[in-house]
Amino acid sequence: MRWGLDTYIGACDALITDHKPRIPKLFISDMDSTMISAECIDELADFAGIKDQVADITERAMRGELDFAQALTERVGLLAGLPEEAIAQCLDERIAPMKGAKVLVATLKAKGCRTVLVTGGFHQFADPVAEDLGFERVVANRLGVDNGKLTGGLVGPICDSSTKKATLLEEMAAFGEGAAALATGDGANDIPMIEAAAYGVAFVAKPKARDAANGWVDSGDLTSVLRLLGVPEKDWVLG
């Protein structure tokens, strides 16, 4: 049976499942171009005057044409020497929630869903984004900083597609059999997580991620995910 937004607002968004959707116990989401409307590393690179160069690598990695860890290491290396204060400026000037993100997170939390932000981006961005949106846990990479400047390296292990899937499985182990997870993302790095979730929703996604999902939102905003789950608008938590 197909349950989707075609029931509500048109056939462009849908969720395909063998049961009527229910509220998940876990909501786990990518950050860049999913919960926020930008790619943080691309915007940060703009402060170093190399946005086009970095954005091209980002785009190819998101399409699944490049190894994520290699592409991340290459892009971070290009930021060596950038003043640390560029992060705060970038957050203030360039990073904003995706439309509907706060409503989605707040509504799911109100219905007893645990929320986790897991990203191939950086704690320096993800931590304040998570606090603003209401996520309860953050899993991310961390930019190396020394003497007030980016080192061009990372601190700790790389958070990649396998980390995203492992985080989902770790979180779901606490809920027991029969619990459902919702995962949202837009790039190739999100595919294992999307495939592992009962409801894997590709949000305005690259073709490979969309093909891997059993749900997709191709237009509109993140409140469309609530519609896919059958949550009536009267139950949305607006803030």
From TrEMBL:
PANTHER family given in the database record: PHOSPHOSERINE PHOSPHATASE
Keywords: Amino-acid biosynthesis, Hydrolase, Magnesium, Metal-binding, Serine biosynthesis
Species per Swiss-Prot/TrEMBL record: Novosphingobium umbonatum
Similarity comment: Belongs to the HAD-like hydrolase superfamily. SerB family.
Catalytic machinery residues: D30 (nucleophile), D32 (proton donor)
Lineage: Bacteria, Pseudomonadati, Pseudomonadota, Alphaproteobacteria, Sphingomonadales
Entry keyword Magnesium: yes
Pathway: Amino-acid biosynthesis; L-serine biosynthesis; L-serine from 3-phospho-D-glycerate: step 3/3
GO cellular component: cytoplasm
Keyword presence, rRNA-binding: no
Name used for this protein in its record: Phosphoserine phosphatase
Cofactor(s), names only, from the UniProt record: Mg(2+)
Molecular function via GO: L-phosphoserine phosphatase activity; magnesium ion binding
EC number(s) recorded for this UniProt protein: 3.1.3.3
SUPFAM superfamilies: HAD-like
One BP annotation, GO: L-serine biosynthetic process
Catalytic activity: O-phospho-L-serine + H2O = L-serine + phosphate; O-phospho-D-serine + H2O = D-serine + phosphate
